[in-house]
Amino acid sequence: MCNTMTSLPNLLTIADLGCSSGPNAFEAIWEIINVSSNLYQSKNVGLPEFKVFLNDLIGNDFNTLFRSLPEFHRKLKDANFGQCFVSATPESFHGRLFPNDFLHLVHASSSVHFLSQVSVPQLEILKNTRKIDLKTIRITKLIKRDEIVRGGQMVLNFRGSTQSDKPDYKQDYELLGLALHNLVLKGRIKEKELDGFNVPFYTPSIEEVQRLIEMQDSFTIKNIETFTIDWGLKDTDLILTLNERAKHASYSFRAITGPILASQFGALIIDELFDQFEAMVMQCLEVGKLDMMNFVISMAKK
Ligand SMILES: C[S@@+](CC[C@H](N)C(=O)[O-])C[C@H]1O[C@@H](n2cnc3c(N)ncnc32)[C@H](O)[C@@H]1O
């Protein structure tokens, strides 16, 4: 961020979009503060102060999040970094959150693939064609952020797919769909309930994202990296049975999707649903790996 700005400000304003309530939010902010402070030091400039805005939807558990704040402040003090003022910005990031030319860095990890404001007709198109016209969805508002200063940066990390017409989410969300379908066949879930259930989640290809950024013409892409997460832990050194790997994958996915599934289908069905899911994961692991494709893209505001 500091490399793309003409001067180094005394106060760096940072937003983390879709911060959630877990420890990841402060870890990401710590990394940002660490890297920028080292950069200021290497240029013999006094350390900056930081103003950090933690954003998520209004239902997010900000209380839990802010319980980690004293520990975070202690860590910053021990490292002799500048003051950091943290506050919450509860609202959807698809809308306007900050004044014009306000932020030096926007960070979003595993949140921009959630299309919280996609309309039902758009979801139908996505379901039927597996294609979405990115121009019509509100992610464009995120990419076009007027809130970022010139030279300021946006770093996004999100789930993606390798080709626009072959979204990659079948490995986890499709298995979930199959598990839910099995419960419909067993009469444990009503077909109507399943038909009315949509996860507003889209994994674009990197080409789609690049095209969108170029179309918007507000940012210059600085770096793109792709990586896969082996959620069945096949490539790790851990000595695990197939069953343990399937359990791990099922627990991780349950942590992400459990609350929305419980609110749609009721908490009582969740154990049975994830037993089914785990069995399907196990079948997949018998024949291959379970990889999730991810992109990290950094861009500077023109
Ligand atoms: C998988 S969590 C990622 C949390 C954290 N950033 C991390 O990397 O661990 C996704 C978060 O994005 C939030 N989110 C989804 N759509 C959002 C929106 N439109 N505005 C703000 N937050 C949103 C969700 O509420 C959730 O907390």
Task: Write a structural description.
With 302 residues, the protein is α/β, with parallel strands linked by helices. The chain is built from 10 helices and 7 strands. It has helices at residues 24-42, 62-67, 69-78, 120-129, 139-143, 173-185, 191-195, 206-216, 242-265, 270-287; strands spanning 11-17, 49-56, 84-90, 103-109, 148-159, 219-230, 291-301. Strands 3-2-1-4-5-7-6 form a 7-stranded mixed beta sheet, with helices on both faces. Strand 1, helix 1 (24-42) and strand 2 (49-56) form a beta-alpha-beta unit. The longest helix is centred in the last third of the chain and has 24 residues, at 242-265. It is elongated, with a radius of gyration of 21 Å. The two termini are 12 Å apart. S-adenosylmethionine is lined by residues 18-20, 22, 24, 55-57, 60, 92-94, 109-111, 114, 116.
Provide keyphrases for this structure.
binds S-adenosylmethionine; 40% helix; 7-stranded mixed beta sheet; 10 helices; 302 residues; alpha/beta; elongated
